[in-house]
Amino acid sequence: MPGLVDSVESSGQMTLGINTGIMASVPHVHHPPAEYSVMNLQMSHFLFVAGALRERTSEESAELQLGHGLWGLCTGLIRTNLQTYLDAESRGLMYVLKVGLCAEFQIVSPVLDFSALDAFLSDELRKEARFGFVRIDGVRRLACSSAASQALLLNVLQIADQAELTRRLALGMHRLTQAEYDAIMLGATA
Hints:
By secondary structure, the chain is of the alpha+beta class. The chain has helices at 58-67, 76-85, 119-124, 146-156, 162-170, 178-188; strands at residues 4-8, 13-18, 23-27, 45-50, 70-72, 91-96, 100-107, 133-144, 173-176.
């Protein structure tokens, strides 16, 4: 969160402050809930990227996952970041390579293990969900071309050039603040 300063001191105290020069020390106690991380200091949403696989195109991959009400976690980094930042109100945006922003949805589960998929889905989604998955609901379709989506993302995420946007999209997921999410939704539905 811009302007938020936090650090854990050797005394076990967490120092929090908002760029006002006023600092407060509070005990740092971590009690993770059963489903979501309590370390979130702000709402987090996520931009997921559907890429092409050997078995299917990026569009086919996206449709397969949306059709089964889940989004697969294709890397360990995506899994780790979702476990860290996912909360009960998190939403997802789906960007399909060479197509653009295509869908928006509510994330309705914590990160689940690949083994929680039934035999059919585990075979069907072995590439997309090899590091787990999240359940999704309330899918809302978007129609924002690739060029318009890229221009929107460059602007909202304040990315200087196309090469940096391409690098970030190649990671498969980008964490969004509430303001970034709102601005992307406004631009994608205008």
